[in-house]
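Next comes a concrete protein, fold included:
___
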Amino acid sequence: MPATPAIVAEGIGLLPGCVAEAVDDVRRAVFLVHTPAFLRRADDARQGLTSMTRRTSDPERALANLQRRNELLAGHIRTEARRRGMRVVDVDGRLTLNRAVQLVEEQFGLAVLP
């Protein structure tokens, strides 16, 4: 049994440097990282403007800045995770949930269910 838990990180809240300190082996971590195109499609599906951006003096600019920030953070996470030898799975909208689960199961040596 590994000394540290397996970590599946998704989104921009958990950085690779923090994960590296929490695992005894980088193979115990997987990062699900959204591509810029996926992030834009997700924003479009949510009608773009959020309650946060609507409260600003320039909602369109606030949304563009928020989208750019998310893209930069996703790129940083992708680069840093790979640099540290951690697995990165790009979430681009083509990856099915079943395939994502299968990739995580394979990474951690879990039994793959049909």
